[in-house]
Design a protein that fits this description.
Blueprint (H helix, E strand, L loop, with lengths): L3 E3 L13 H10 L3 H4 L4 E3 L4 E5 L6 E5 L25 H4 L2 H11 L3 H7 L14 E6 L7 H13 L3 E4 L2 H10 L5 E6 L1 H11 L5 E7 L3 H8 L5 E5 L2 H11 L12 E4 L7 H22 L4 H14 L4 H13 L5 H6 L3 H12 L2 H6 L1 H13 L6 E10 H9 L4 E4 L3 E4 L2 H9 L7 E10 L9 E3 L11 E4 L4 E10 L2 E8 L8 H10 L11 H10 L3 H14 L6 H15 L3 H18 L4 H17 L3 H17 L6 H16 L3 H18 L5 H16 L3 H18 L5 H16 L3 H18 L5 H17 L1
Parallel strand pairs: 1-4, 5-6, 5-7, 7-8, 8-9, 14-18
Antiparallel strand pairs: 2-3, 3-4, 10-12, 11-14, 12-17, 13-16, 15-16, 17-18
């Protein structure tokens, strides 16, 4: 049969490509000799052509088969510049252009002459063949196995089956060191054949496909190339499918928050520490948030909107929708897909709404990491370019802590990491950082880390991935030449210096089991406590929309929304929510005295904030009456009611009544709170104000000093509330004509106000005038 090869339209020879001999060797290595020597049809993912009788000649039409459709790829000239829209550029690379160049040259005398010569495969790792061998005595006898073969071949055409271990061993040994082989093997035959072939370089990975996972896992542990022991056909197909995908760039830099151990009240350090704690609370809460099937639909919908017009990403999104399962979470992340970039962007920016969209995925990732926790202590290395400012932050935080915002990859091969860092081009605004990380799984049980090379058949090195939110202690930061080395150690929740952090997190979580799931309302409460009121409102609204009409949680949700709107100073919406909660509560029962008392108190507070003292006082009286019905006269909530009622009487200049309610509040607070609690300081301050109005200045000074002593212990030295007490004490001394002491306290107040208040603030102007007046009196 005469063979006529039709050149690809628009193809130009490239002067930079390798010689004809090398090209044809590659072609023959790829089995293209089958095209030339008479095979009448061939069809695969990599190459497609068909025999034709056009122009009265038997001919072959050749071209790369595009993954986006069944037609020949039209981007021939763009492959080597990596602009081709076909996603297989990343897995085949320039070999596509090699095949097209061979196609162009076929038919020339030089090539046909070469075609009759003996062809020796070249040793080129880029042209290595990726093969799958399946060894099982019943591989071709069992109907299920034959069906599995078909499924594997639909993904990977180079599958070869064996029922004889000797034949399989001989075939494995005949492969070159540049070839890459995945071996699927039964449990019984695996024990035998791996003793002789496991250490061969051409064997990349092994999957034990068996009936008894637990039994075979016992002997499989001694072989590092065994990636998994699999009993489910779908799991096997998933692993093979993902092995064809490109691995993500594991050299992405660390994004982190810093926690500094210091007594320095520097505002920037305080903000950094707050961000550290907030980020941890947020991540833990998202992972705990209960799954709702609608969330997955919402994620897919948002991704489709985000990738509108991007055919490649839309196709991957559809694959994700159809094929994702909790067992493939890690595979989706470490292989090239939208998840790695989209999720990391959300995590780095701490975008709560975006993170919530991915929460099912984050939960599955966390579970997979826990199930595959690395089993022993290990030292790993990570390198990156970092700004001088970030490096300085690490240096000054030595002996402090960092928490990572994203998943972190690190390599056990120090030389390779260093070589990569040394070869990285230095820029004027960045420096080279080598992270040396020690990790012990017995210490950091809450933040697992795993060896991801188990999840990629062609990854030859041990790559460790740490869970996002992992905390590391910064042991040392030093410089060697132009490389900075940061030594750090993975920490657990028993870290002594972080006890206060974890105690605070427990309070934010309501002292619940932080491994248990939470509903939207509980997540909204947590978001509310860390200042994310908009997120909290959306959580409450969503659960309220889904709650049945007779669900008792509706009253709680309306009440939570009322708090959110109150803090946003949207008092009309807040009042509406509290009234809805009151209706729900009364509809269910009129004997739930404590809940009714709280709602009456909340409504009273809104009236108080909108300066409707009469209505406010009336609702506070209703609140007190409900607590009294419940025989809870000394309940800590009563202290709040009495304090606010005292303030109403004070504004009405009914000082005796005001004093009585403030004293009741102080007694109740004393039963429930520590002696230096801020609420007790507030009540002492209120009592002092009343004594000032009653001209009982010694008692006023006494309560101001009690208030000041607590605030100095518990607040920042430059806190507004401390300055306010100094100013009040100064006023008492001034009215007693003790101008020297008045000046001392006014000056203390002024020193704080000048630091924390902007120029022109009314309190700043007032304190300066007061200080000036008493100084004039002294002269």
């Amino acid at each position: 049969m005469a063979v006529v090869w039709v050149p690809i339209e628009g193809f130009n020879k490239r002067s930079h490509m390798t010689g004809i001999g090398d090209l044809v060797r590659v072609a023959f290595k790829r089995n293209l000799n089958r095209f030339i020597f008479g095979q009448s049809s061939y069809d695969s993912e990599e190459f497609r052509y068909s025999q034709s009788s056009q122009h009265d000649n038997a001919g072959l039409y050749s071209g790369e088969s595009c993954r986006l459709s069944a037609v020949i790829c039209s981007h021939d000239e763009q492959c080597c510049s990596s602009r081709c829209l076909c996603r297989r550029w990343s897995t085949i690379g320039e070999q596509r252009c090699v095949r097209k160049y061979v196609a162009y040259l076929i038919g020339s005398k030089s090539l046909m002459a070469f075609g009759n010569a003996k062809v020796c495969p070249i040793a080129d790792s880029d042209s290595s063949i990726r093969l799958i061998y399946w060894l099982d005595r019943e591989v071709n006898e069992n109907g299920d196995n034959r069906q599995t073969q078909q499924r594997i071949r639909s993904i990977h055409n180079n599958l070869k089956t064996f029922h004889d271990p000797h034949e399989c061993r001989t075939s494995v040994e005949s492969l070159t060191e540049q070839d890459r082989l995945i071996l699927i093997v039964s449990g019984s035959l695996g024990r035998d054949i791996l003793q002789t072939v496991h250490d061969l370089p051409q064997l990349s990975s092994v999957y034990v496909y068996c009936m008894d996972k637990k039994l075979n896992e016992e002997w499989a542990r001694q072989y590092r190339k065994i990636k998994d022991v699999i009993v489910c056909e779908q799991n096997l197909i998933d692993r093979i499918k993902f092995d064809k995908k490109t691995l993500v760039n594991i050299d992405q830099g660390i994004s982190f928050n810093i926690y500094t151990i210091t007594d320095d009240p520097n505002p920037s350090i305080i903000r950094e520490n707050e961000s550290f704690v907030r980020s941890l609370i947020l991540l833990k809460s998202i992972i705990r948030l209960r799954f709702d099937p609608k969330d997955r639909e919402e994620l897919i919908s948002c991704l489709k909107k985000q990738f509108h017009g991007n055919k490649r990403q839309l196709r991957i999104t559809e694959e994700f929708k159809q094929e994702y399962s909790n067992e493939t979470a890690l595979l989706w992340y470490i292989h090239e897909s939208f998840l790695y970039t989209t999720l990391n962007k959300a995590l780095n920016e701490q975008s709560i709404e975006q993170m919530l969209l991915f929460r099912l995925y984050l939960q599955d990732m966390y579970e997979q990491l826990k199930q595959n926790q690395y089993g022993s202590q290990i030292r790993v290395y990570h390198s990156q370019m970092m700004s001088f400012e970030e490096r300085h932050d690490l240096e000054k935080s030595k002996n402090g802590y960092i928490s990572i915002k994203t998943f972190l990859f690190a390599n056990t091969n120090q030389n390779k990491v260093l070589e990569s860092l040394i070869n990285t081009q230095t820029t004027s605004d960045k420096c080279k950082i080598l992270f040396v990380i020690d990790a012990n799984p017995s210490v950091a049980t809450a933040n697992p880390f795993i060896d991801i090379s188990r999840f990629h058949s062609f990854m030859s090195e041990t790559i460790i991935m740490f869970m996002l939110g992992s905390i590391f202690r910064l042991k040392d930061v030093n410089r060697d030449g132009n490389i900075w080395t940061v030594q750090m150690e993975l920490c657990g929740e028993n870290e002594h210096n972080l006890e206060q952090v974890f105690e605070y997190m427990n309070r934010i979580h309501g002292n619940e089991n932080r491994d248990s799931t939470i509903d939207r309302r509980a997540f909204g409460d947590i978001a509310h406590r860390i200042g994310e009121s908009d997120v909290a409102r959306k959580m409450y609204d969503r659960q309220l929309d889904e709650a049945p009409k007779n669900d008792p949680v509706r009253s709680d949700l309306h009440c939570s929304l009322g708090r959110v709107y109150r803090e946003k100073k949207d008092y009309s919406r807040s009042m509406k929510c509290y009234n809805e909660a009151l209706k729900e509560c009364l509809r269910r029962s009129s004997s739930n005295f404590i809940e009714l008392g709280n709602l009456y108190g909340s409504i009273a507070e809104i009236y108080l904030l909108t300066h409707n003292d009469r209505k406010s006082l009336g609702y506070y009286e209703k609140a007190v009456a409900q607590y009294q019905k419940a025989h809870a006269e000394d309940h800590e909530k009563m202290a709040d009611f009495y304090n606010n009622m005292g303030s109403i009487y004070r504004r009405d200049k009914m000082y005796a009544d005001a004093l009585e309610f403030y004293k009741r509040a102080l007694v109740i607070d004393g039963k429930h709170l520590s002696s230096n609690h801020p609420n007790i300081a507030k009540t002492h301050n209120n009592i002092a104000i009343i004594y000032y109005y009653l001209s009982r200045y010694d008692l006023a000074l006494n309560h101001y000093r009690l208030s000041l002593a607590i605030k100095v212990q518990t607040l920042d030295p430059q806190h507004y509330s401390i300055a306010n007490v100094y100013s009040n004490i100064g006023s008492v001394y001034e009215i007693q004509s003790d101008f020297r002491r008045a000046a001392i306290h006014y000056r203390k107040a002024a020193d704080i106000y000048h630091v924390i208040l902007p120029d022109g603030h009314e309190d700043l102007i007032k304190i300066d005038d007061q200080l000036k007046n008493v100084l004039n009196q002294l002269h």
